[in-house]
Recover the amino acids of this structure.
């Protein structure tokens, strides 16, 4: 249902096609299959039908995506003759956990309503009243024509016989199929190997992988409910995260419209005005209208019929309970809205979510007084209000802003909310979006306040989890957050900085170069050495084998001069094409800029994409075998990831070794707000291995010279309290400088309203006197050249004493 957001590298993850166990017999299921045939309709286009085409709907009852490449659905007449053949419709793609997959079949001459966009299309003219449909591993036509013979064919994943079908599961086929009725599975998608018990006839409700249906909404719809049914919103929502009625049709569900969304995931929210008194069951619910614009208004009293569904917006996310394929009757308009629930520091619990030992929390009874996510789930679709909320995540390009209803929860010095540990989640964070296109959320920076009431309905999305779709927005109170400028290094201090410049390439607009250059020349006060992460090749995402970055770096260094900075030189090792991850075709890499008037780069030839740099013991201390060079670049720890760049510099006659890093991203990790608790951090495995490689190299440098001055820095894509950083610092060979700052200042990045640290500078024991600073110029601002703040350390290479 929800539109996926492009471009978030932290959230991009390949779908693992692994199959969880569902109770299916070997006769009709691969042993680990979770896919079932959820609905079959052969009456499309017939006389009296509403839909114009036949369809077969698949569903995934498991916890992971089910890949359909190489699979097919096949159809056999209900009473096959000697000449009857199975008709094959090949499939592709995948069906998400809890999701649906729609196969359109032949169209007839009747009907007026099209199916939602099909995920696969066949040409089979299915019978409205009798037939057999099979989900098959493979595309070779089946040959079986009896129930017993088909039960022996292990290619059949699931099978449904309806009407008077000879080939079926269990005691008999599903009765009741007609021109106006499909046969569909119940809420749990259970398969007990008995078609007649597992499926029932009812109005057809096709749903595709996007959650789209063929339903609309509006007053006086043909077939719309005229009387309230027996099911209320709280019956649909239930006392857990999953509806007890999922997959079932409901009729005449009453409610008052509390919000309408006319773009993106179109639909509206209803709320029951007669709550049941159970604080676990939400009285609000989303009604998804698909491609049809909602024909209702806030304050309308309505009756809604349709199919209850759980929509999963992303792998690992929780689901959103909704009614799909709705038929809606407006009874009256201008009704008062139910009172909004107040969200504040008193009402939102301090504990985040119950633990399930890494498993799903979906089956656990909600405890809204104990856990924040349980509270938000118990209010899913319901009206809430919050007052004077502090902004903890600046307004994004998607017109979203993060706020907190707990102003005293882990505040940073500049107004954010600090992410302190895996165990200490910030429970007051909520994302706010506006339902009024004419009044989007204001452009706000961290620390600003939405003064007065912000009121809306609670929704759930893949990015950020629970959010408030606002019908009323507070007034922006600008707190005047300023971009920081660090001090200039003294003559005797070596200034080394790190800056992730977010996929910079020569094709980018000049204003991006200018803004980034201003950050280096002015805000960082022109460091002697700058480690750059995310420099792409010169033509960016054009995938033509280009690996050089000379034009990009020329434009960037020219822009720094124009901003008042020095004329920097640069060094890097060009990657092998397509080997370093990042944007496809971009050939991302780490680069050193250095001011040759202040510092000397020691060039030692021989470094290339696959040659490992080594520490060399000399009479004068440690040296590098190649400079610039890469740390063990052929190690599998660096597969599809940037390799660390090592350079040997000399400053005031002293050697300094700088290691530029950009570790693997967090893509693939389960979300903090997801259904698996505690969430698995699968990407961490590679970063820990990368940290071990860097630690081994630093250890080798210190064995060659225990007084070697080493600065390791860059975007480690992990937190100071993570196993990655613990591995990197193992043996006390490196000290993470972020931990030397006051606790409220230990961050350089803001994500989902959490101020956190992904970028780091670490130093070896010989670096005893330093001055370290995170320079906040991007992450807290709506207008940003990069989503990372740069960091800088100023080192007295000849000085003793302690760092500060």
């Amino acid at each position: 249902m929800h539109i996926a957001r492009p471009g978030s590298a932290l959230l991009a993850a390949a779908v693992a096609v692994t199959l969880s166990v569902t109770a299916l017999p070997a006769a009709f299921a691969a042993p680990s299959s979770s896919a079932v045939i959820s609905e079959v309709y052969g009456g499309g286009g017939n006389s009296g039908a509403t839909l114009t085409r036949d369809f077969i709907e698949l569903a995934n009852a498991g916890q992971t995506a089910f890949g359909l490449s190489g699979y097919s659905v096949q159809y056999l007449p209900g009473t096959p003759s000697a000449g009857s053949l199975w008709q094959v419709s090949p499939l592709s793609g995948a069906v998400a956990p809890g999701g649906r997959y729609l196969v359109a079949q032949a169209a007839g001459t009747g009907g007026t309503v099209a199916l939602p966009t099909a995920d696969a299309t066949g040409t089979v003219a299915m019978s409205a009243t009798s037939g057999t449909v099979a989900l098959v591993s493979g595309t070779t036509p089946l040959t079986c024509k009896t129930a017993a013979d088909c039960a022996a064919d292990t290619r059949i994943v699931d099978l449904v016989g309806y009407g008077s079908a000879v080939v079926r599961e269990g005691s008999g086929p599903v009765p009741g199929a007609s021109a106006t009725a499909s046969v569909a599975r119940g809420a749990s998608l259970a398969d007990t190997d008995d078609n007649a018990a597992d499926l029932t006839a009812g109005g057809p409700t096709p749903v595709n992988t996007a959650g789209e249906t063929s339903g609309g909404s509006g007053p006086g719809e043909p077939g719309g409910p005229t009387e309230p049914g027996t099911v209320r919103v709280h019956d649909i929502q239930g006392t857990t995260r999953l509806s007890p009625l999922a997959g079932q049709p409901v009729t005449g569900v009453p409610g008052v419209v509390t919000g309408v969304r006319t773009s993106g995931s179109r639909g509206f929210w209803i709320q029951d005005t007669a709550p049941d008194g159970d604080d676990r069951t939400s009285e609000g619910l989303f009604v998804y209208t698909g491609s049809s614009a909602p024909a209702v208004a806030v304050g309308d009293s309505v009756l809604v019929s349709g199919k209850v569904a759980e929509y999963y917006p992303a792998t690992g996310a929780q689901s959103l309970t909704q009614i799909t394929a709705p038929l809606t009757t407006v009874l009256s308009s201008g009704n008062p809205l139910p009172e909004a629930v107040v969200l504040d520091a008193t009402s939102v619990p301090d504990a985040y979510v119950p633990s399930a030992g890494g498993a799903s929390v979906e089956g656990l009874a909600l405890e809204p007084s104990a856990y924040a996510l349980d509270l938000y789930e118990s209010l899913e679709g319901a009206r809430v209000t919050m007052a004077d909320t502090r902004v903890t995540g600046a307004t994004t390009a998607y017109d979203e802003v993060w706020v907190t209803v707990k102003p005293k929860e882990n505040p940073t010095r500049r107004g954010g909310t600090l992410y302190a540990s895996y165990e200490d989640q910030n429970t007051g964070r909520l994302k706010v979006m506006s339902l009024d296109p004419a009044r989007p959320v204001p452009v706000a920076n961290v620390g600003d306040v939405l003064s007065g009431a912000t009121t809306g309905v609670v929704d759930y999305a893949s990015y950020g989890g629970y959010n408030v779709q606002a019908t009323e927005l507070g007034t922006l109170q600008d707190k005047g957050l300023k971009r920081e400028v660090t001090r200039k290094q003294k003559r005797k201090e070596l200034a080394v900085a790190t800056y992730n410049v977010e996929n910079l390439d020569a094709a980018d607009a000049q204003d991006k170069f200018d803004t980034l250059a201003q950050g280096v020349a002015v805000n960082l006060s022109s460091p002697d050495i700058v480690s750059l992460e995310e420099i792409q090749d010169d033509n960016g995402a054009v995938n033509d084998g280009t690996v050089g970055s000379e034009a990009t770096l020329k434009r960037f260094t020219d822009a720094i001069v124009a901003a008042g900075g020095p004329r920097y030189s640069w060094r890097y090792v060009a990657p092998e094409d397509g080997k370093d991850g990042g944007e496809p075709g971009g050939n991302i890499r780490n680069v050193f800029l250095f001011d040759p008037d202040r510092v000397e780069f020691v060039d030692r030839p021989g470094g290339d994409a696959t040659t490992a740099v080594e520490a060399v013991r000399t009479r004068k201390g440690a040296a590098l075998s190649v400079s610039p060079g890469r740390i063990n670049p052929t190690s599998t720890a660096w597969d599809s990831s940037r390799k660390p760049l090592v350079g040997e510099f000399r400053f005031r006659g002293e050697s300094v070794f700088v290691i530029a890093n950009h570790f693997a991203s967090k893509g693939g990790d389960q979300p903090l707000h997801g259904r698996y608790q505690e969430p698995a951090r699968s990407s961490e495995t590679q970063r820990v291995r990368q940290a071990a490689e860097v630690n081994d190299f630093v250890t080798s440098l210190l064995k060659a010279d225990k007084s070697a001055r080493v600065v390791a820095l860059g975007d480690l894509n992990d937190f100071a309290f993570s196993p990655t950083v613990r591995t990197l610092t193992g043996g006390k060979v490196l000290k993470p400088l972020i931990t030397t700052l006051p606790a409220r200042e230990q961050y350089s990045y803001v994500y989902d309203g959490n101020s956190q640290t992904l970028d780091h500078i670490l130093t070896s024991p010989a670096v005893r006197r330093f001055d370290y600073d995170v320079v906040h110029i991007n992450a807290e601002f709506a207008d940003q050249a990069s989503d990372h703040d740069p960091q800088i350390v100023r080192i007295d290479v000849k000085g003793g004493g302690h760092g500060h």
